[in-house]
Amino acid sequence: MFEINCDVVIIGGGPAGLAAAIGAKEEGAEKVLIIERDNALGGILQQCIHPGFGLTRFKEELTGPEFYGKFVDRAKELGVEYMLNSMVLSVDHENSQVICVSSEKGMTCVHAGSIVLAMGCRERTRANIVTPGTRPAGLYTAGAAQRLVNRQNIMVGKKVVILGSGDIGMIMARRMSLEGAKVVCVVELMSYLAGLTRNRVQCLDDFGIPLKLAHTITRIEGNERVTGVWVAPVDENKVPIKEQEEFIECDTVLFSVGLLPENELTRKAGIAINPITNGPEVNQYMQTSVPGVFACGNVVHVNDLADNVSEESARAGKYAAQYAMKKLPTSTGTVTCVTGRNVRYLCPQKIQKAEGSEKVSLYFRVLNPELGVKLVAKCGDEIIAQKKAFRVNPGEMDHIAVDTAKLTTDAITVEVVKED
Amino acid sequence: MSTIKKEIICTVCPRGCHMEVEGQGDQVISVTGYTCNRGLEYANTEFAHPVRILTTTVKMAGVSNDLLPVRSASPLPKEKLFDCMEVIRQTEVKLPVACHDVIISNICGTGVDIVATKSVE
């Protein structure tokens, strides 16, 4: 078997993997290797040709390719190495190695001082949400359609219904409209938008595409090709109201119904997975339950902004490099992060205490939209950090920074409090 | 001419502030609900002449299974988007291309260039 030695090995060459590689190099790791299964670096951003990236990180609005292009340039400048068309088969953390395969090198064993998981996520499909009906051609996940249209020059249909108001779904509504297709409507099960408001404005309102909130597709019709879908409003328990069902003619259905972190390798390696995020549990160093394995980006929790992914991934790379160089701060105790009122999950799930103090940002998503609230972090009854928020929304990640010196108990609770 | 009120949702950043603009014809009289200056600027433009960044793809000569991503170098008048798409659809670019190379200059007389957003050798 072909063998490679490196300081930090990174699985995945998308925005997370690239930022982690740069972070590791900048921290002083000598040999950093990215293993990527696609034929180019950039990950999903290769097909995200729309603008909206980089506002936080670069203070300008970039398209997906421009955004990852900057990271690829920087990674190459720093001498980050990469293997393309290479698929990782297993993470063997006991021996600190990764087994991968490619047609060029065959089976390869990569020995590394530390391992970074940056595999990203995968779309939920029709099968995941069990939409009844026939199984004709013309059903795509929004991201698969996006790849076909934007990277492979294949138009997927002419008359489209989109299920789910996530960002990819709305962006595809605009994309299909610009390419000459008719987008009949976007159907959303929840009573609120799943994606960012600005995407509704630019992608739906601009093109006069109706958004049906609190509706769902009850049946798909068509034998060879989709001929249409039945759409019905849902009651407060998300049960379709059969009497109000209507038939909508279409030849294509796009599913934009959420993303799932891609953690087959993580599970197989016995790394602890959080049941809410479906990603590995991490501490503020983005270190998993296995000390030599770090994780970042959508494999940990599904982010809404690539800017956030690159920030958290740079951190993962930095600490993975420190671990490989045996410089990671020694832990003097662990604090568990607990979800309080209207908080669905927290990331990181644990904070390692070490000598001195540091600022740790706790990222979280709310369960329900709320206006005029306060975000509060507490140790027992003592408030250690708080900030006002005009509005919170499940589709938009929030964060609150805490000072590790103020962690007096072994648990910290983050909650959303109604302002009087 | 009577004044009209328009609700505008800001698209400058993911925050999506809800603003209300009051104006007459193209003239803005007042803007409320914005939280930064870029938002105020957006509200003024959006009220009188809405503009959008256009992103799409262009065919590459001799390549059948890949496309070059492109964008308008600056925002285009919203009502011109479909005219611009028609021109872009007819375009085929010769390789190599560097990121930000001009692919179509002054598209549809708007004074805006369509540029590559990726380098392809």
CATH first level of the largest domain in chain B: Alpha Beta
Q: How much is the radius of gyration of chain B in Å?
A: 18 Å
Strand order in the sheet with the most strands of chain B: 8-5-6-10-9
Percent of residues of chain B in helical segments? Answer: 10-25%
The CATH homologous superfamily name of the largest domain in chain A equals: FAD/NAD(P)-binding domain
Domain count of chain A: 3
| Beta-strand share of residues of chain A | 35-45%
Question: Runs of chain A with pLDDT <50, length 5+?
Answer: none
Task: Work out the helix count of chain A.
Answer: 8
Largest beta-sheet characterization of chain A: 7 strands, mixed
State the end-to-end CA separation of chain B. 56 Å
Question: Secondary-structure element sequence of chain B?
Answer: EEEHEEEEHEEE
Please tally the β strands of chain B and state the result: 10
Tally of distinct domains of chain B? 2
**What structural class do you assign from the helix and strand content of chain B?**
alpha+beta
The helix-and-strand class of chain A reads alpha/beta
How are the elements arranged and paired?
The complex is a heterodimer of chains A (420) and B (121).
Chain A: E1 2-11, H1 15-27, E2 32-35, E3 51-53, E4 62-63, H2 64-77, E5 81-83, E6 86-92, E7 97-102, E8 106-117, E9 121-123, H3 126-129, E10 139-141, H4 142-151, E11 159-163, H5 167-178, E12 182-188, H6 197-204, E13 211-213, E14 215-221, E15 228-233, E16 246-249, E17 252-255, E18 259-261, H7 264-268, E19 293-295, H8 306-324, E20 333-339, E21 345-347, E22 350-353, E23 359-365, E24 370-379, E25 382-392, E26 398-403, E27 411-418
Parallel strand pairs in A: 1-2, 1-8, 2-5, 8-19, 10-17, 11-12, 11-17, 12-13, 20-27
Antiparallel strand pairs in A: 3-4, 6-7, 7-8, 9-18, 14-15, 15-16, 20-22, 21-23, 23-26, 24-25, 24-27
Helix pairs in contact in A: 1-2, 1-8, 4-5, 5-6
Chain B: E1 4-9, E2 18-24, E3 27-32, H1 37-48, E4 51-52, E5 55-60, E6 67-72, E7 76-77, H2 81-89, E8 92-93, E9 102-104, E10 114-116
Parallel strand pairs in B: 5-8
Antiparallel strand pairs in B: 1-2, 2-3, 4-7, 5-6, 6-10, 9-10
